[in-house]
Write a structure and sequence with these properties.
The chain is of the alpha+beta class. About 30% of the residues lie in helices and about 30% in strands. Strand 10 and strand 11 (about 170-175) form a beta hairpin. Helix 1 packs parallel to helix 8 (about 325-340).
């Protein structure tokens, strides 16, 4: 049967757009995004950092394999910004574990306060620094992948919300944007809606659950110049903060499970997070300029899910980014293309196995 496309990608965030860029050289690609613009949901609400040691196991392998692309492809998307870990009295053990896990160097409090003058000497008792971290220009990364996808012939369709998915003989038929499109392979890059898309297609869900992460944007504390400040993370992820064009973005660092939706910040959660932040600084929060929230789509083992479904091989998972989507996009999309083309993946076999959807097969079948 003649099909409209070889790869039909559902989802227009960084996962879907990077997948389109990698798959377009392999065949006809159509990407469907239900919103008016690409990168509207989680991809438009990122802390926008590249932290090589953020995540565990297979996620770190993807980070490391993505770094060269982030640094050099299309002129690069990274700008150096250090990361500062701070801890309170009584958090010695947790601080030691975290600063070692992040590969950070312990620094004295005078040096820490030179970097961030508002640290409260009464409540911040230890600090560690990583200078190998970066701001990540998420908009530029999306545009670079989008340009590559279109140059290779990919069709990118916004305002095409998927309403139904079914089999039409040996191909997929998808109703979206008032029309029906057929494809040989369906790529599920739907973020928070990944399990919903699977169920629409008659494929067993994996258990990818959206979790809300909120952010409050406040004026520069004490009128300080924030341009040289590091990304700040409190031990235990009680909160984190990042300078952002003369303002400071502060997150309560919550991970509250949610149904998939257009996320918004919860005022109570923000207030609790800002109170934890205020405890460790000398400048109170007088006002919040604005706030936002995004959904991190988390698989049961907190690693990405990349590859054909074990029961339905022409249904391909590219989901479960868990907040690592931008960091891992170059290597993750490269792996997706390798799996689709039959090429030997550049990543080690154990990493590939840790990302494949068939790792959940025992849980899904109940055996």
């Amino acid at each position: 049967m003649q099909t409209d496309t070889d790869f039909l990608i559902i989802g227009g965030g960084v996962a879907g757009v990077s997948a389109a860029a990698r798959l377009a050289p392999l065949g006809r690609v159509t990407l469907l995004e239900g919103e008016d613009a690409l990168a509207y949901h989680a991809s438009g609400r990122s802390a926008a950092m590249f932290l090589r040691t953020y995540g565990a196991g297979a996620v770190r392998a993807l980070n490391e394999a993505s770094e060269d692309h982030h640094l050099h492809a299309d002129g690069g998307v990274l700008t150096p910004r250090a990361m500062l870990l701070i801890g309170r009295p009584g958090e010695e053990d947790a601080f030691e574990r975290e600063h070692a896990d992040f590969g950070m160097e312990r620094i004295g409090m005078s040096e820490a306060r030179a970097l961030v003058p508002i640290l409260n000497p009464q409540t911040v008792s230890r600090a560690a620094l990583n200078t190998g971290t970066f701001d990540l220009d998420t908009h530029l990364l999306i545009q670079n992948f989008l340009r590559a996808a279109r140059a290779a012939g990919a069709e990118i369709l916004t305002r095409h919300k998927v309403h139904a998915i079914r089999r039409d003989g040996s191909v997929w038929a998808v109703d979206a944007g008032g029309k029906t499109m057929t494809a040989r392979t369906l790529v599920n890059a739907a973020g928070a809606w990944a399990d919903t898309v699977a169920e629409m297609a008659g494929v067993a869900p994996i258990g990818i659950v959206p979790h809300r992460r909120s952010m409050a944007v406040i004026p520069a504390p004490g009128g300080h110049d924030l341009s040289g400040w590091p990304f700040i993370d409190a031990v235990g992820e009680r909160w984190y903060a990042k300078p952002d064009v003369g303002r400071l973005s502060v997150s309560p660092s919550e991970a509250d499970p949610m149904e998939p939706h257009d996320a918004f910040a919860d005022d109570t959660v923000l207030a609790e997070g800002l109170a934890r932040y205020e405890e460790m600084v000398t400048e109170p929060v007088d006002r919040v300029l604005h706030s936002w929230a995004g959904l991190r789509s988390i698989a049961p083992d907190h690693a990405l899910v990349i590859g054909p479904d074990p029961a339905v091989p022409d249904f391909v998972w590219f989901a479960g980014q868990s907040g690592y989507g931008f960091q891992t996009a170059p290597a993750a999309s490269r792996l997706l293309a390798d799996l689709m083309s039959g090429a030997a993946p550049e990543l080690p076999p154990d990493v590939v196995a840790a990302l494949r959807p068939d790792r959940f097969e025992l849980r899904r079948t109940g055996t």
